[in-house]
Amino acid sequence: MRVTVVGAGIVGLATADALVRRGHDVMVLDAVRPMGARSAGASRIFRLAHGDPALVAAADEARGAWAEWSRRAGRELVGTEGAVVSGPKAPAWADAMAAAGAEHTLGDPPAALLGTAEGPVLVDPAGGAVDLAGAGRLLLEALRPHLRPGRVVDLDELDADAVVVTAGAGTPDLVAPLGVDVPAALRHHVRFSFRPRAAPADVPPAHIDGVAGPQLTSTYQHRTPEGTWAVGGHLVDEDAGSTTTADHTLDEVRARSRAAVSAHVAERLPELDPEPVGELACAPAVVDDDGVATARVGKVYVLWGGNLAKFAPLLGERLAEAVHTDGVVHPIGTPTDVSDHGR
Fold first, then answer.
1. Which keywords does this chain's UniProt record carry (predicted)?
2. Which residues span the domain enclosing 225?
3. What is the CATH number of the domain that holds 254?
4. Using CA atoms, how far apart are residues 306 and 319, in angstroms rounded to an integer?
5. In what order do the strands lie in the sheet with 105-107?
6. What burial letters (b/e) apply to 113-129, b meaning 16+ CB within 10 Å?
7. In this structure, are strands 162-165 and 300-306 parallel, antiparallel, or unpaired?
8. Residues of the chain scoring pLDDT < 70
9. CB 192 within 8 A of CB 230
10. pLDDT at 213
């Protein structure tokens, strides 16, 4: 079967890789460059911790798929340092992990945690930092003969037996003519990297902190493959009275984020030099909660959602299997209502 994958981010590449292994004739198109846009940057946080037991179970399944990618790469692509969640979500997420039978604790912060955290905190021992750039290199090397530059405007112009759309910010416009409603409003977001003042004896866990502050509603941090620390925060948008930055320019968000995150590092993370040494900007959908949504319209398969990188190898397998069997994508989590818009 001839399959075109539109979008060469981590999910698109995972899907193409799984399709090639199933024997299909695959072409991957990307408007800019592979592993750009929402898949740019060296790292992400992997976690089992979610607010939905079904998402916890899916993340656990994805952890096994990451292990297979690590075997192919010849090195670990997901760290073993664990992840910590603090703030209002911690108890509810602990309940979801308990319902899914996932190992966790809810109590005092671990000694290795970088900075301070208000308890109780949820400790996810299966979490850690993902070497996203390393995973991208693994897939790009395997898919080199299948990659083509190209901006797709009309899906009907693609000469293929099946089309998979994993185009990130480009997805809403591409699939709107099919009657698939994907959230189109975007917000700018910038995370920064900081150098540690000294190498820690043990790698501290990745940390997601939902404690609100005067400038940031929540923060996250984790070690990158380069040995720096990635720290990001979600801005309080005083103008709109909400937490979205959709109505602000990237330069405005970059300046506000740099000041707010640097202040957070100076106050809460004294182990880091508060002067950023790098930054990564992206534009996720305004609706950016955990979750995956899919749709099928005839030969076109569509996938979108929030915080997808940790699920990438599992999403690739499920999309590829749906194409391979002429079926629909198996749902991931209860928010994932799979829509079959017609065959």
1. FAD, Flavoprotein, Oxidoreductase
2. 83-125+187-283
3. 3.30.9.10
4. 17
5. 105-107, 121-124, 83-86, 206-209, 216-223, 229-235, 189-194, 278-282
6. bbbebeeebbbbbbbbb
7. parallel
8. 238-246, 286-288, 333-343
9. yes
10. 79
Please, are residues 129 and 206 in contact by the beta-carbon 8 Å criterion? yes
HEC per residue, 299-330? CEEEEEEECCHHHHHHHHHHHHHHHHHCCCCC
CA-only gyration radius of the chain, Å: 20
Q: Which amino acid is at 127?
A: G
* Contacts of residue 269, Cβ cutoff 8 Å, sequence gap at least 6: 114, 115, 194, 221, 229, 231
Q: Give the residue from 92, 141, 253 showing the smallest Cα distance to 186.
A: 253
Phi, psi of 6 (to 5 degrees): -100, 110
Q: What is the pTM of this model?
A: 0.93
Residues 158 and 63 in one domain: yes
**What pLDDT does residue 9 have?**
97
CA 225 from centre of chain: 16
Give yes or no: residues 221 and 88 share one domain.
Answer: yes
- The predicted structure's pLDDT at residue 337: 38
Cα 128 to the center of its chain, rounded Å: 13
Per-residue tokens: 164: 């998979």
Note whether 239 and 252 are same-domain residues.
yes
